[in-house]
Structures are given as structure tokens and as C-alpha cells.
């Protein structure tokens, strides 16, 4: 006999639409057992293995899901063969699915385990390195038995259903939530002790900690998020002080960088001014001394920086450059990490200086709900222009460079940050109603109006098509070489 596989754990992410279709198939109201297959992307992250449900194949009762030879029901050999070969060719994990009775507790029967141990070694050979496994669902629970190889086997710790309202499924109910620190008593009255504990266990990424991002960091820290990873390549300047939370003139070395100083003195001051990520980390720790913050002073597009965001539970994009927007969009789609692009905009007439348009915006992005590329928020001309080195862009007098006299006001930034943070809070704690949408929100203070834009998905889009839920073996991420 071969070596017995080592059993570890992994997690599963399911987009909301796929989960609802699966539940309707497994639990149509007849009290019987039904079958299906999920093709899933695989991501190996610092937090462990994550499976990302991409495609769902429903087995027809009596045709592809039939009476079993050693158990109650089984998938037919032809259905299994077709699906395992497809998963192999697409570099996706093969997950066979069925359901049991019950509500919030589920597990595999001895017949199920026997079937896995007889059949999965052969399926692994066909899959040529792609994982194979099984999931069993109850109405509010899921268990998994995942084989990475003949000697490495994973049990499913939990499944996360992502969409307007998150849900967490596990094999059995948890033993109860932690005690909530007194400082969180009032807000835990809204989403309960489990909700507060859930926030404490989240890792959230904030890309860009300027005017909007610095506010987001403070809001997330005060909500009780346990782990933040933040990135920004810039240092604090005097013109940033009215908009950066917690900023002090000392952070900008104002006595050296103020107007009137000789250029070399100003350059010296700018060289030693506080990095924006250091400032944001300081603000977060003051707001929540128990928080763990990873400040990354650098370029989000560098592979070693991007890699630190792959096991985040949620992403906030608060940076202007189009290459950062493209990479954020790719991460959301390929790794099924829900996110939101957030910012504010003041457009002025270049000739007269008159204000033309003012708004704050929050645009939720997730797999299956369209993407920023589909909706025209990553235009090719801007992407090409923003890809130019910043210093070269200034030499070319690129007038749309957001760092050159771009109007910005802290109240507009705060509105955008609050909308995004509030949506995040209600989504992850499950307080959002089932009828909620993932529409883009735009607040126009001049008109005192809030408008909602329905995101669209265009066929053939690389970002939310070929990338969607592929994990590590998806298309190359648009990072710098």
C-alpha cells in the first residue's frame, strides 16, 4: 500500500450567483440527493491553499447522477471523465458535489470516503497535477475532502460565499464567538460578537494611502479589522497636509520644504519626509493598538509587493494611476478577492478655471459582476499614458497627471471613503439584504444627488472572462517585470 495522505485544511470561495444556482439544484424541495461538479481555480497563499469556484456543471438526475453500486447515488463514469479531462485541460481543480440532509452540520459517510479512496488516485493521474476532491453540502454547512497528490490531502475548513452579502459555511457550527473588547461594545450591538470576531480575523488591503486611503485606514482600524496591508510609493508633502489623516507639518519637513526655500534645501526635506504608509500605520495603531499593519513603501505593480495582497480577504483601491487600477481589477477577478475602487473627482475648465463636475464614487468589483475594464474605467489611452515613468511624465508636461495641481478636498474624500467602508462592513458581516445590488455609487454634492450605475459585463473580456477565478494558473498578472 502507498503512503497514507497527510490531511491538512484549505478554504473555498464561491461567487454568490454560482452558489445560489448550486443550492437550487441540490435542494429543490424533494428531500433527495443530487449531484454536480465544480471546476475551481487554485491559489497557494501564505495563509494556505484556497480553491476558487469558477464553473458549475449540474448532473441530471437519472442520467448523469444515478443509483450507486456501493453507495446511494453516484456520478456516471462518462460524466466524470468529461469533467475531469476538461478540468485538466483548463488547469482547474475537479470537485464532485452531492448533498446530505440536515441544516448546519454535515460530513462524508463511510461509503463516501471509501469511494474517494478507491477513485481519486486514478483521477489524480488523469488530472496530471490538478487537485481533485469532493464537497458535501447541507443547507447551511459544507465539508470537503481535497486531494492535491497521492500523499497530500486537504480537509475543508470553511467556504465563503462572496457577493452583496457574505456567508460563511463550515462542516459544523463554531463553538461560539470570542468576548468582545469593551471598546467595540456599541458597534457589536449591530452585527453581534461573531461579526466583531470576523472583522478581527480579516486581512484587508489598501492600495494607496493618500487623501482617500488614509481615511479608509483609520475607519478600518476603528471598526476592528485585525490585519491591514497598505502600499504607497510617496512621501508626505506640504500640499498633502489638509487631506492626510493624522498628518503634522513635521511629517512634511515643512520648515525645509516650504515655498521660498532654495531648491536643493526643498529636495533635501522631501527626501527625509515621512512616507505615507508610515503615517497611515501610525494612525491605524493609535486607533486600534491590537491591529497588525504591514506598511509597504513601494510600487504596487512590483511582483514582490503584489504578492503580499494575494491572501487578502478584501481590497480597497484608492490610487489614481491606471496601471494600478488594471492590476487591482485583475486580482479581484483572478483570485476572487472582492474589492472596491474608491475616489473623488473635481473637474475644472482648463481655460476659465470654473468647476465643471464634482463627485465622490465607490465602485464595488467582484467576479461575475462585470469589471472596471468592461465599464470603461481603464481606458487604453490613459493606461498607456500612466504607464510612463512619473518623472518622464512631468518632463512631458502631462497635464492630467493627478499629482499636478489636481483639485482635492478632504470632505469629498471622506464621503467616498465612508461609502466604501460602510458597504464593506455591511457586506462582510452579512447585514446587507438579499435584495441589495453591487451597483456603483456616485455622490454629487453640487446637485445633492446620489446616483447608482449598474455595472455591465462585456462578452470576451479578458479581465472578467479568461481571468475569472483561475487563481495561480490564470493569465499573467499585469505587473512590472
Question: What does this 3D model show about the protein?
Answer:
The protein has helices spanning 16-26, 77-90, 110-127, 185-200, 211-223, 254-257, 263-272, 276-287, 303-306, 322-335, 380-386, 390-395, 410-428, 462-466, and strands at 6-15, 35-45, 48-58, 65-67, 73-75, 93-99, 132-138, 141-147, 152-162, 167-169, 203-207, 227-232, 292-297, 314-317, 339-348, 355-365, 440-444, 449-453. By secondary structure, it is α/β, with parallel strands linked by helices. The chain has two domains: 6-169, Cytidine Deaminase, domain 2; 182-234 and 275-466, 3-Layer(aba) Sandwich (Rossmann fold). Strand 6, helix 3 (110-127) and strand 7 (132-138) form a beta-alpha-beta unit. Helix 5 packs parallel to helix 8 (276-287). It is elongated, with a radius of gyration of 25 Å. It starts with 5 loop residues before the first strand and ends in a 15-residue tail after the last helix. Mean pLDDT is 90; it is low at 1-7 and 392-404.
Amino acid at each position: 500500500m502507498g503512503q497514507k495522505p497527510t490531511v491538512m485544511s484549505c478554504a473555498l470561495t464561491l461567487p454568490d450567483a454560482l452558489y445560489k444556482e448550486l443550492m437550487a439544484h441540490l435542494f429543490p424541495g424533494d428531500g433527495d440527493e443530487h449531484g454536480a461538479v465544480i471546476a475551481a481555480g487554485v491559489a497557494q497563499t501564505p495563509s494556505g491553499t484556497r480553491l476558487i469556484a469558477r464553473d458549475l456543471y449540474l448532473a441530471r438526475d437519472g442520467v448523469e447522477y444515478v443509483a450507486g453500486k456501493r453507495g446511494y447515488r453516484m456520478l456516471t463514469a462518462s460524466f466524470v471523465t468529461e469533467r475531469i479531462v476538461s478540468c485538466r485541460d483548463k488547469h482547474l481543480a475537479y470537485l464532485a458535489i452531492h448533498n446530505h440532509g440536515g441544516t448546519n452540520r454535515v460530513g462524508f459517510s463511510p461509503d463516501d470516503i471509501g469511494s474517494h479512496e478507491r477513485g481519486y488516485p486514478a483521477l489524480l493521474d488523469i488530472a496530471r497535477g490538478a487537485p481533485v476532491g469532493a464537497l458535501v453540502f447541507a443547507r447551511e454547512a459544507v465539508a470537503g475532502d481535497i486531494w492535491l497528490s497521492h500523499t497530500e490531502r486537504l480537509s475543508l475548513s470553511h467556504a465563503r460565499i462572496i457577493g452583496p452579502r457574505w456567508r460563511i459555511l463550515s462542516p459544523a457550527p463554531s463553538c461560539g464567538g470570542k468576548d468582545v473588547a469593551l471598546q467595540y461594545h456599541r458597534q457589536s450591538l449591530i452585527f453581534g460578537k461573531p461579526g466583531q470576531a470576523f472583522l478581527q480575523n480579516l486581512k484587508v488591503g489598501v492600495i494607496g494611502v493618500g487623501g482617500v486611503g488614509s481615511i479608509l485606514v483609520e475607519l478600518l482600524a476603528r471598526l476592528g479589522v485585525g490585519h491591514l496591508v497598505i502600499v504607497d510609493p510617496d512621501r508626505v508633502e506640504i500640499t498633502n497636509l489638509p487631506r492626510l489623516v493624522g498628518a503634522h507639518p513635521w511629517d512634511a519637513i515643512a520648515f525645509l520644504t516650504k515655498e521660498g526655500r532654495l531648491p536643493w534645501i526643498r529636495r533635501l526635506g522631501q527626501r527625509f519626509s515621512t512616507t505615507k504608509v508610515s503615517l497611515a500605520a501610525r494612525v491605524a495603531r493609535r486607533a486600534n493598538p491590537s491591529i497588525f499593519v504591514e506598511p509597504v513603501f513601494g510600487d504596487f505593480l512590483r511582483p514582490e509587493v503584489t504578492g503580499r495582497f494575494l491572501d487578502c480577504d478584501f481590497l480597497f483601491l484608492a490610487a489614481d494611476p491606471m496601471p494600478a487600477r488594471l492590476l487591482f481589477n485583475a486580482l479581484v477577478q483572478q483570485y476572487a478577492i472582492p474589492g472596491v475602487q474608491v475616489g473623488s473627482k473635481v473637474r475644472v475648465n482648463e481655460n476659465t478655471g470654473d468647476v465643471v463636475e464634482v463627485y465622490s464614487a465607490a465602485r464595488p468589483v467582484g467576479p461575475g459582476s462585470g469589471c472596471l475594464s468592461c465599464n470603461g474605467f481603464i481606458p487604453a489611452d490613459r493606461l498607456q499614458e500612466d504607464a510612463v515613468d512619473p518623472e518622464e511624465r512631468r518632463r512631458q508636461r502631462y497635464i492630467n497627471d493627478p499629482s499636478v495641481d489636481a483639485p482635492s478636498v478632504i470632505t469629498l474624500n471622506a464621503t467616498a471613503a465612508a461609502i466604501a467602508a460602510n458597504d464593506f462592513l455591511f457586506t462582510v458581516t452579512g447585514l446587507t439584504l438579499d435584495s441589495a445590488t453591487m451597483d456603483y455609487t456616485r455622490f454629487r454634492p453640487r446637485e445633492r444627488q446620489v446616483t447608482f450605475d449598474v455595472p455591465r459585463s462585456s462578452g470576451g473580456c479578458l479581465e472578467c472572462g479568461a481571468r475569472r477565478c483561475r487563481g495561480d494558473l490564470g493569465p499573467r498578472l499585469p505587473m512590472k517585470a
